[in-house]
UniProtKB/TrEMBL annotation:
InterPro entries: Tscrpt_reg_PadR_N, WH-like_DNA-bd_sf, WH_DNA-bd_sf. It holds the Pfam family PadR. This is Transcription regulator PadR N-terminal domain-containing protein. Coiled coil: none annotated. Residues 34-105 form the Transcription regulator PadR N-terminal domain.
Amino acid sequence: MPTPERVPPSVHDRGRPRTDGLVTIRLSTLSYLVLGIVAEHEICTPYRIKTELGRSIGSWWPQPHSQIYDETARLAEHGLLAVSAESGGRRRRRYSLTPDGRTHLTCWLDDPRTGDSEWRDPALAKLRLLDPRTRPADRVRMHRLAIERVEMYRDRTGRDHPPGAEPAGFGEVRRLAHELDDAAARFWESLARATADDERDAGRPASADPN
């Protein structure tokens, strides 16, 4: 008899009752990252979760610290994490994975579907609003924006974790992220050259004040 396909629990969130006893809760990518980091360390404080996210994928997928803390508490409220308090000192909350939490995490990892990718570079919003074809001053703004993004991407690509400090499973993540950063840097370098050429043809240096 074939083994029934395991469906990620979050798929059942849309008004249909569950029949497998699992808690119904809408989970995000951040939810699964929190569950996964707690699973890696067995017992984890919210501060450590925040630190692990920051030093692994935080540069490419930043999350507000308050959101990480709130999500950890929400997962505990719904029974996916168990919470206890330290007996002394600062009495920090410590979280561990419950069986339901492990099932949700395992089902998500087993499912190859992840949805559309996101690239939330704030510079894209500025690029969308700049129109050098009708507003010559925007060529200068676009050139300055491109130079800034080149510096940011080149700086980020050049960073390395000190020996022994690289989080588990981060090697492939870093390689992909660096390749994406390198591609983005090449795009912004090309845009910087193009806007500089346009300004030179117009007889105005690209570094001039656009106002």
